[in-house]
Amino acid sequence: MKNRNSVSFPRHSRRAGCRKWLNGASALLLAGGIATGSARADDIQAARDVVARLLPAHAGQITLDLTPASGKAERYRVSGRKGHIHVTGSSDSAILFGLNWYLKYVVHAGISPNEVTPPTMAKLPAPDHPIEGSATFPFRYALNENTDGYTSPYWNWERWQHEIDIYAMNGLNTLLIERGTDAVLYRTFMRLGYRDEQIRAWLSMPAHINWQLMANMCCYGGPVPRDLIEKRAQSARQIIDRLHELGIQPVLPGFYGMVPDDFGKRFPDAHVVDQGEWNRFRRPGWLDPRDPMFARVAAIYYDEQKKLFGDAPVYDIQPFQEGGSPGDVPLAAAGQGIQKALDTAHPGAMWMLMAWYEEPDARMLAGVDRKRLFIVDLEQNTRVREDRNRDFQGAPFLYGGLWDFGGRTSLGGSSYDYGVRLPGLWQTQKNMIGTAVFPEGMDNNPYIFDLFTEAAWRRAGVDTTRWTQDYADRRYGQPGDVHARRAWDLLLRSAFSYRATGIQDYGEISAAPDSLFNAQPSLDTHSAAWNGMKVLPYDPRMLQSALDELLQASDAARATAAYRYDLVDVTRQVVANQARALLPRISDAFAAKDRAGLHALTTRWLELMDRQDALLSTNAFFRVGTWLSWTRSWSSDPAERSLMDYDARVILTNWGGRTASQVGHLRDYANKDWAGLTKDYYRTRWQLFFSSLETSLATGRPPREIDWYKVGEDWCRNGRVYSETPEGDSYAIAQEIHTFLATDGTAGTH
User: Fold this and answer.
1) How far apart are CA 159 and CA 416, in angstroms?
2) What is the pLDDT of residue 745?
3) If DSSP states are collapsed to H, E and C, what string results for 636-661?
4) How many C-alpha atoms does 287 have within 13 Å on its Cβ side?
5) How far apart are CA 146 and CA 144, in angstroms?
6) 277 CB-near residues (< 8 Å, 6+ apart)
7) The Alpha-N-acetylglucosaminidase N-terminal domain covers which part of the protein (predicted)?
8) How far apart are CA 673 and CA 64, in angstroms?
9) Closest CA to 643 of 224, 303, 293
10) With b meaning 16 or more CB within 10 Å and e meaning fewer, what string describes 83-94?
11) Rounded CA gap, 605 and 138, in Å?
């Protein structure tokens, strides 16, 4: 009988790729925080496999080879003749990015998180001359701590493998893996005397566990099934092994003192500091890093983590994330204790911190070895920071691109900051060591992803107009399509036109406004997420013009999966923008007691939602059934499936319990324009609300109060199965919506 406390793994080889990664990691230059990216010259089969999966019809025409590194920067070179393309580079990342550059600018093909547009020609063309390039920064990092909650909590191996392939082709070489840390915590506290059921009740379910890793909350959605913990650890090992094979450095969560609330009772001599609340969730306790018990717990944690996942060059450690309190513990001493425990377990490892809210605290920075920090700077998205060497006291940092919160489907981003300002920052920000792809949703916004990842391989900003024209050419594989180019030029000058503003809104201003269709109904709402952008930062008519151009694209462009994705995305955003013009008119009609006008306006509102849901149904990326389908592969047990289904639904809607949802303002933080969610949840809420308004005008009484939390709970627990299979014709429905928007059936209402 298997030990009930063990986490088992299938027997498999880590292959030579693991050795390659370890060789590169051991070359980490601590003084500068730079990884050499060195690799074995005969060990790039994993990179070849990436090409075979993404470009099956053309992989046989592409030869990849490693060349010895010269200098610190990773380099690539693309040459060859027609049908025989040769790509060399000093690392897997450089080779694959070099190939991607060739595909972008010679072949006009696109590799993105939202569809791959393969070469249109049978034989690949030769470049006019050898193409050479190098990485500007040694670290091209990806994944927000919240991505594993809002994007990938239940992804299976096939989905993860595809994502890693996309990241590798876009030059990313450092990746946060949080999956499996629940197994580390489980094993750690079991060794400290906790019982199995106590730890499983303390841990949170997969869509919420990453907030527990930052000590924002605990104990949500479980008890977590033991076999789920084991399966997630196995999955994490598989993901990490693939990263090793590709020379991608994994970043793992480190230990900073998070312990169960009753830890101080179990160990009365330990100094545990109460951390209060986060958005009305009770935070776990924090163990004083000066306490001898801290070193003991940290040693166990890192020991268990190493047994499961090996070593990493960087550890993500976020004490006091969005609040918390050091109590009577001096911050400098706390930082020293955290860093000492990390260094004891992993000599020379770097400590990843976010520059977010008031973090990192200058007092903590003052107490640690700052050359070994790895700061992801998220404040650059809201206001320009001129001297991060001074702000971070010399600590190295990465420019974090944060264009999405909650995985929201809103279209937009700052083409200026990412395409013009970012590539040249190395000239003035001497402690900048990399870029960080840091949105909370990784399955949307391919335009900004492409622009941002490319910036790490440029030495100066781009002409965004020309760059966007090239993007339109490769996005649909049809260079010169005048309507596609015009559509993307209009998108550049509207949804992608805003930039860091100087408004101190803690980053939310860097994400595009979400849809009022997804908001908890009221007559004066300005965003669905409570701290989302409140106003549309562009003329919505320009987006409608972009849709008009997109609908006129060539038949060849329309035949691509990327076009179909973009058509749904742009049309969806055009429809969502209608709500911002319509809601004030609904409010005015209600205030004027205009029953006929109110009915006409609310009828149009609901019809827009119906049409939007039909449009979203045509693409798997925009179906809630796709999101929910991932949970079903993790268990055949009905009770466990029910737990996971609820976990996946509630993160989209109420987010947590009643108090956290309604008082803590977490409701709809992860709102999405997704088929099924739009029809059965968002539309249901607005229908209830509009009925209450009409009844109010008919009776003369105030509108009845509606328990919105209960409405959310009803949807989360209804058990309805949603298909992930697309239904309907994206183009036909988008064309119908375009025609519908041209006629206003409410003209004449007030």
Assistant:
1) 31
2) 63
3) CCHHHHHHHHHHHHHCCCCCCCHHHH
4) 28
5) 5
6) 283, 323
7) 45-117
8) 40
9) 224
10) eebebbbbbbbb
11) 50
